[in-house]
Design brief:
One of its GO terms (cellular component) is nucleus. It is found in: Nucleus. It is a single chain. By secondary structure, the chain is an alpha+beta fold. 47% of the residues lie in helices and 13% in strands. The strands form three sheets. It has a four-stranded antiparallel beta sheet. A two-stranded antiparallel sheet has the order 1-2. Strands 7-8 form a two-stranded antiparallel sheet. A hairpin with a 2-residue loop joins strand 1 and strand 2. It is extended, with a radius of gyration of 33 Å. The protein starts with a strand and ends in a 48-residue tail after the last helix.
């Protein structure tokens, strides 16, 4: 229809335009909206990419040349990490005799000498003073009691205790896994041979047991130390890209990675009911040896699978860098206490910041006499924390998955 020769659509459009203009005027008169818009414009105008776009073509050309140099640097860095891997292999051979002796002491195959067993504790002086004032009769009684103490072979449940102490590992262990892990005698790390693709193998050595016939269970972690062709600037060192487990030869009825369930089925025609049994997967630490495979055909994994794979890589790296080299400290809990002290240091810094805020409140109290003055807070200063070879992305000091170890020579970045 038409009104005075003007189409109704045109009248409606003019009306909408007028309403929009009024709404815009109202919004622009709001100082909070204007401030937000200005902040947004400022952030956009000051981004590095927007700055680069304003540069002359001749300057952009030189920047591209710098990127070419950066790619060459990444390839040199990759070679550096390959040599670091060779160095790790060299020193692993030097560590191994000590680790072999550690296994002999744990299993009880060899008894340490008095010299090997000597250890000076921090409380040694206090213990000596306390011993000087003890009654000779009490000492004799204690010596008699010590003579009657049991003397088990080696160090019972050494590795199982480590699993129980470390949260990352204890979360994987089910109650029915525990009797099996008590048969674990040693964990070793083996590095790939020269000229072979970069990798490392975790070997879990078990004594003969009633659960499986394997004496060694293995987990191989494959690594890559080369810049990605599509994104060379993302290279930060070797990364774990995939892992392979091994087949466990379970004895009959002892496989803890599956459970048997019974299910009733009703026949559609006759109406009869039958009971069937089938096996379904069960949570177990020993699923560690049947890992999820990284997608190698270009297809991306779903979010849950990516998280599972990243967790697997983290645990493998944790065994390699922390558990195996420092096993006795995780058995006694000293390594775990070190991690806790680091976390307390972070909390101490936070408390110190809160103290500064309280100081501001005191200044406010001088201005406003009605306000109660804040009580002086206690000193929250913490002892300095010495950090060695860390933090890694797998340890409690980690900033999270996907983080790079600041100690670059460790050559690890989670995928």
């Amino acid at each position: 229809s038409f009104s005075d020769g003007v189409p109704s659509e045109s009248l409606e459009a003019a009306k909408n335009a007028s309403n929009t203009e009024k709404l815009t005027d109202q919004v622009m008169q709001n100082p909070q909206v204007l401030a937000a818009l200005q902040e947004r414009l400022d952030s956009v105008s000051h981004t590095p990419s927007s700055y680069i776009e304003t540069l002359p073509k001749a300057v952009k050309r030189r920047i591209n040349a710098l990127k070419q140099l950066q790619v060459k640097c990444a390839h040199i860095e990759a070679k550096f990490y390959e040599e670091v891997h060779d160095l790790e292999r060299k020193y692993a051979a030097l560590y191994q005799p000590l680790f072999d002796k550690r296994r002999e002491f744990i299993t009880g195959d060899v008894e340490p000498t008095d010299a090997e067993s000597e250890w000076h504790s921090e409380n040694e002086e206090e213990d000596k003073l306390a011993g000087d004032v003890k009654d000779k009769v009490v000492i004799a009684e204690k010596e008699a009691a010590a003579a009657e103490e049991p003397n088990p072979k080696g160090i019972p449940e050494f590795w199982f205790t480590i699993f129980r102490n470390v949260d990352m590992l204890s979360e994987l262990v089910q109650e029915y896994d525990e009797p099996i892990l008590k048969h674990l005698q040693d964990i070793k790390v083996k590095f790939s041979e020269p000229g072979q693709p970069m990798s490392f193998v975790l070997e879990f050595h078990f004594e003969p047991n009633d659960y499986f016939s394997n004496s060694v269970l293995t987990k191989t972690y494959k690594m890559k130390s080369e810049p990605d062709k599509a994104d060379p600037f993302s290279f930060e060192g070797p990364e774990i890209v995939d892992c392979d487990g091994c087949a466990i030869d379970w004895k009959k009825g002892k496989n803890v990675t599956v459970k048997t369930i019974k299910k009733k089925q009703k026949h559609k025609g006759r109406g009869t009911v039958r009971t069937i049994t089938k096996q379904v997967p069960s949570d177990s630490f020993f699923n560690f040896f049947s890992p999820l495979k990284a997608s190698g055909d270009g297809e991306s994994l779903d979010e849950d699978s990516e998280f599972t794979l990243a967790s697997d890589f983290e645990i493998g790296h944790f065994f390699r860098e922390r558990i195996v080299p420092r096993a006795v400290l995780y058995f006694t809990g000293e390594a775990i206490e070190d991690d806790d002290n680091f976390e307390e240091g972070e909390e101490g810094e936070e408390e110190e910041l809160e103290g500064d805020e309280e100081g501001e409140d005191e200044d406010d109290a001088d201005v406003n006499p009605k306000k109660e003055p804040s009580q002086p807070s206690e000193c929250k200063q913490q002892e300095p924390v010495l950090m060695t070879r860390g933090p890694h992305s797998s340890c409690p000091k980690s900033p999270g998955f996907g983080a790079t170890c600041p100690w670059r020579a460790c050559g690890f970045r989670s995928a």
